[in-house]
Amino acid sequence: MKIAVSGKGGVGKTLVAGILARMFAKDGFKVLAIDNDSAMNLSYTLGIDENTKDKIVPIKEMKSMIEERTFVKGAGPGVYNINPEVSDIPDKYKVSGPDGLQLLVLGGIEEPATGCLCPENALIRTLLYNLFVKRDEVVIVDFEAGIEHLGRGTAKGIDLMLVITEPSQKSLDLGKKIIELSKKLGVINIYLISNKITDDQQKDTINQKIKKWEVPLYHTIPFDPEIGKADLEGKSPVDFNSNSKGILSIKVLYEKLKKLKQELFDL
Ligand SMILES: Nc1ncnc2c1ncn2[C@@H]1O[C@H](COP(=O)(O)OP(=O)(O)O)[C@@H](O)[C@H]1O
Ligand SMILES: [Mg+2]
Fold first, then answer.
1. What pTM was estimated for this model as a whole?
2. What pLDDT, on the 0 to 100 scale, is given for residue 152?
3. Which ligand 1 atom sits closest to the C-alpha of 249?
4. How many whole angstroms from 127 Cα to the centroid of ligand 2?
């Protein structure tokens, strides 16, 4: 199952992607977490150890590898192969984390104002699209804030799009855009998740606002100060306090997704 996590900056994408990855891994699934955000901080939420973290080089920054893969012999400058060979990249460059999970740091896709399609973007897009997911594998992608950079091909491979929102009109607005775009790109399973909720009133208001969206509010995660404390320590919230209300709520979300996975793939 390929799960994508998206939403406005700061809503909790990395939190949800990272903690779900840990929970799937702990349960025995083969997990590949992919950091496709330019902030590249998924390794913290996953609880990757310092030594390993220091050694990570984001795929996007591997200039010579990208050049090699996208080079077209005899072609002039500015011409490159938009369908580079990528199948060996995950195995070659992923690092290991807790509970046997693996992390591949891509870096974000930036849409250059000039409209140029840079080789690194082509390589990352091809990678995201061609990731082959086996039966017991779970791939979780922590996306850039918007998803405008997603081509039809990239989105097609996504089985489940989790759109995260916080209790703010701004994040709901972007959530709506992401949902519309995801639908256009052919993603079928799209779920809205509200995060950092402090009371029932907020939940009710969000439910009111999304009445006509045709996408349910699938899950609600409470505001949890323990998550902020973990962040300050540079620790994974699940290692810092696995019984905090935020983590327990993500555990419930995890159980729902595990069931959904069975319904979608194992019957
Ligand atoms: N449920 C929550 N309760 C308290 N703080 C949270 C919660 N979810 C996220 N945060 C905090 O909000 C900030 C943004 O979260 P993050 O997962 O990095 O968002 P994103 O990846 O969408 O930018 C972080 O400092 C994180 O600790
Ligand atoms: Mg993030």
1. 0.94
2. 62
3. 1
4. 20
Q: What CATH number was assigned to the domain covering residues 2-266?
A: 3.40.50.300
Q: Hey, where are the domains in the chain?
A: 2-266
Nearest residue by C-alpha to atom 17 in ligand 1: 12
Cα 125 to Cα 131: distance, rounded to the nearest angstrom:
10
Q: What type of residue is 230?
A: A
- State if residue 58 touches ligand 1 by the CB under 6 angstroms criterion: no
Atom of ligand 1 nearest to the CA of 237: 27
The per-residue pLDDT for range 76-108, each reduced to its tens digit, is: 777 888 788 888 999 999 999 999 999 999 988
Q: Is the CB of 12 under 6 A from ligand 1?
A: yes
C-alpha distances in Å from residue 81, one per residue of 24, 67, 117, 259, 261: 36, 10, 11, 41, 35
